[in-house]
Amino acid sequence: MARSSPRREAAARDVHTTNTAVLLREAFVTLNGLVVPRLAERGFFDVRPAHNAVFQYLDWSGTTVSTLAERAEMTKQAMGELVTYLEERGYVDRIPDPNDRRAKLVRPTAKGREVYAVVRELVPELEQRLADTLGATRVRQLRRDLQTIQETFAQGE
Prior knowledge:
By secondary structure, the protein is mainly α. The chain has two domains: 46-108, Winged helix-like DNA-binding domain superfamily/Winged helix DNA-binding domain (Arc Repressor Mutant, subunit A, Orthogonal Bundle); 110-157. It contains eight helices and two strands. It has a two-stranded antiparallel sheet. A hairpin with a 2-residue loop joins β1 and β2 (100-108). α5 crosses α6 (76-88) and α7 crosses α8 (136-154). The chain is globular, with a radius of gyration of 19 Å.
C-alpha cells in the first residue's frame, strides 16, 4: 500500500475546500449524521445513514424497489439490500403491486412512520441552528442559491 505524501495530502485538502460540490456533499453528510443519534435516543438503534436512501424516496402508498433505486441513483441490488434490512426490522413491508402482479410495493409500516415523525421533529431544530450560525438572512439566501443550483443543473446548463 502506497504511503501518502505531504504534497498529496495537501492537494486532497485543497480539493475538499475548493470544490463546491464536495463542500455541499460534506454539509449534507454532517447534517444527515445528526439524524442517527436522534433516532437512537428514541429507540431506533438499527437505522443508519444509508437507510435515508429508502426513507427519502418512499411513497406512503408504496414504491417498487426499482423506482427507489432509480430515485436514489443506486443499483436495484443495493436498494434491495437496504429494503430487506429495514423489512426484517419492521420499518417497511412489501405488498403486491395492484398494477403489476409481478412487482411488490415497499411501504412504511407504523414503525417506519415513527422514524419519519422523529426526523420531522428534528428539522426545525436544524433550521434554527443554521439560522443561529449564519443568520436568518443568509439562510434564506442559501436556500435560494441551492434552489437555483438545482434548477440550473437539472436542466443541463
